[in-house]
Design brief:
By secondary structure, this protein is an all-alpha fold. The protein contains eleven helices and no strands. Helix 9 packs antiparallel against helix 10.
């Protein structure tokens, strides 16, 4: 599926592809920013690092408000169906397992959870975790935005080769 998305993105202008890739739960900005620095985007990121960061951060934020505001009503309606009930049970259990930071540190934990550029963290999972822990919207949104900003800075610096998180030496 990832390969299909990347193949599809080749047919779009790099700014549009970066924005759309950042919206996807499979990639988020952790995939959109490196994509911008890849040959697939014509190394758009190298030429426009600030624009790349802004496009990826904005795209990553797009699904946050719908998740935070619509997940509750959607869950209530869909839980009536056995398959959907199993999906929500699985999704919430997976999110809760990975959200110890949020439970322990609340605001700082939510920011870190969204900011840490690892699989199964990010704005999508952070939004679901905020819903699960019944965090108010006025509390969750700024924390998620700050987490997205921090993650974007880290991923941009890694993509530019300025910051090295892992070393082969």
């Amino acid at each position: 599926m990832r390969e299909q998305i990347l193949a599809w993105s080749e047919h779009l202008p790099p700014p549009v592809a970066i924005f759309l890739i950042a919206m996807l739960p499979v990639f988020e900005l952790r995939g959109a920013i490196p994509y911008a620095y890849s040959p697939l985007a014509g190394d758009f990121g190298s030429a426009h690092p600030i624009l790349t960061y802004l496009l990826a951060a904005a795209g990553n934020f797009v699904p946050v408000l719908p998740i935070l505001t619509l997940l509750g009503p959607a869950e209530q309606r869909l839980r009536r169906y056995k398959r959907a009930d199993r999906f929500f049970t699985w999704l919430f259990a997976r999110t809760e397992k990975r959200s110890g930071l949020i439970r322990k540190y609340q605001a700082f934990g939510l920011i870190l959870f969204v900011a840490i550029p690892l699989p199964m963290t990010g704005a999508w999972t952070g939004s679901v975790a905020a819903y699960l822990f019944r965090l108010p919207l006025r509390f969750s949104v700024p924390c998620i935005i700050l987490g997205i900003c921090v993650a974007g800075i880290v991923v941009t610096l890694v993509s530019m080769g300025v910051l090295h998180l892992w070393s082969n030496t």
